[in-house]
């Protein structure tokens, strides 16, 4: 079961034709006058984006970009794992594991692969149940289990030592690697990490108070998607896996809310083609349901909510204007070896500000 097989993205034309048919025959919800993004994705915006997806978006061009890099699958714990593996032309280059967030598993890292491959051997997996790793074959995919599978993947590829970068959910998995295999890690680099606050509130700066307020707003008004997937994943999966418009709305709302606060629309942070590449991969792989199931697994892990060992691996934190990380809480969770605050960007910094992300990763690991 340790076989590594070459993989190529090849979506049948019949699948493309079916998607276009579904998009052009969508049944649209009536638009409520005055309803804006505070109520979810505006109907007029969604209709325009769906029309672009059906009639202008070039999947074959996106597919060619996805196939630019060597990619493979292997089976670990009964689950297919898809990954890109790009060997650097640089002699004795260190290995770097790049871990995605959700949504954004496809678009989030595409723009940093080529420049980082000059300095690192790159391994870029889809988490179990995401994208080309395919629907989940079992339940129980907690953060520790995902981290253990990725450590095994690096072993299969012959990397005894490696670094890891992750954003959002990928940051959580990166820190869990730091708990499980600290001796194997050169360092950790994360962005969009959510370090939940504790009672240590005295002396917060104005900027930190603003981040705290953002967390509070999210817990009151932005966590609905998480609650639905964490409690009734199969119910929402029935809608997401059957309706491309429903899936588009579900995903693009998060791109609006989690990108640079200065971006009026998601495509002001990164292109429509990037957005629709990500949405298309999720549609063609029929993984919306298994992504929701993974949220349920994480939320129902009894160990997820208890105290965790502090990560002793040197860790770099990148904090964008849209992020909520407060340094004292990051220092509680990990050994902060580097702290960078950017002038622009949000949770998808590798897509929004790829040059900034590449430079920070290079500089951090050059010091290790």
CATH architecture assignment name = 3-Layer(aba) Sandwich
Structure annotation, total helices? 15
Query: How many domain regions?
Result: 1
What is the CATH class name?
Alpha Beta
Compute the separation of the termini in Å: 34 Å
Question: How confident is the prediction overall: mean pLDDT?
Answer: 96
Name the beta content range. Answer: 15-25%
Helix content: 40-55%
CATH homologous superfamily placement:
Alpha/Beta hydrolase fold, catalytic domain
Unreliable sequence segments:
none
Shape: globular
- Rg, rounded, reads 20 Å
Sheet with most strands: strand arrangement: 1-2-3-5-4-6-7-8-9
Multimeric organization:
single chain
What profile does the largest beta sheet have? Answer: 9 strands, mixed
Per the CATH scheme, the topology name is Rossmann fold
Structural class: alpha/beta
Order of helices and strands: EHHHEEEHEHEHEHHHHHHEHEHH
Description:
- With 368 residues, the protein is of the alpha/beta class.
- It has a single domain, classed as Alpha/Beta hydrolase fold, catalytic domain (Rossmann fold, 3-Layer(aba) Sandwich).
- The protein has a nine-stranded mixed sheet, sandwiched between helices.
- It contains 15 helices and nine strands.
- The model has no long low-confidence stretch (mean pLDDT 96).
- Helix 4 links the parallel strand 4 and strand 5.
- 45% of the residues lie in helices and 15% in strands.
- Helix 8 packs across helix 9 and helix 9 runs antiparallel to helix 12.
């Amino acid at each position: 079961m340790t076989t590594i097989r070459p993989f190529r993205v090849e979506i049948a034309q019949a699948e493309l034709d079916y998607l276009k048919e579904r998009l052009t025959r969508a049944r649209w919800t009536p638009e409520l006058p005055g309803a804006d993004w505070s109520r979810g994705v505006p109907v007029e915006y969604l209709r325009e984006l769906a029309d672009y997806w059906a009639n202008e978006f070039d999947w074959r061009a996106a597919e060619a970009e996805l196939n630019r890099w060597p990619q493979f699958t292997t089976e670990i714990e009964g689950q297919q794992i898809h990954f890109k593996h790009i060997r650097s032309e640089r002699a004795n280059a260190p290995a770097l594991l790049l871990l995605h967030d959700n949504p954004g598993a496809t678009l989030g890292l595409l723009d940093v692969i080529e420049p980082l491959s000059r300095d690192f051997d790159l391994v870029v997996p889809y988490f179990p149940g995401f994208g080309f790793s395919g629907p989940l074959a079992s339940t129980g995919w907690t953060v520790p289990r995902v981290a253990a599978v990725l450590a095994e993947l690096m072993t299969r590829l012959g990397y005894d030592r490696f670094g890891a970068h992750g954003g959002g959910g990928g940051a959580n998995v990166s820190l869990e690697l730091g708990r499980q295999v600290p001796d194997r890690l050169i360092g950790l680099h994360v962005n969009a990490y959510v370090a939940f606050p504790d009672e240590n509130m005295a002396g917060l700066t104005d900027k930190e108070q603003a981040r705290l307020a953002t967390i509070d707003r999210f817990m009151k008004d932005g966590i609905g998607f998480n609650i639905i997937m964490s409690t009734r994943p199969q119910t929402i999966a029935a809608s997401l896996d059957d309706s491309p418009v429903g899936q588009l709305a579900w995903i693009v709302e998060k791109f609006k809310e989690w990108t640079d606060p200065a971006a009026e629309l998601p495509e002001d942070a990164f292109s429509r083609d990037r957005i629709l590449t990500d949405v298309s991969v999720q549609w063609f792989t029929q993984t919306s349901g298994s992504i929701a199931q993974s949220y349920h697994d994480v939320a129902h892990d009894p160990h997820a909510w208890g105290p965790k060992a502090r990560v002793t691996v040197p860790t770099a934190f990148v904090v964008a204007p849209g992020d909520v990380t407060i340094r004292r809480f990051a220092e509680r969770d990990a050994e902060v070896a580097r702290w960078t605050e950017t002038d622009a960007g949000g949770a998808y910094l590798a897509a929004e500000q790829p040059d900034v992300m590449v430079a920070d990763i290079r500089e951090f690991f050059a010091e290790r």
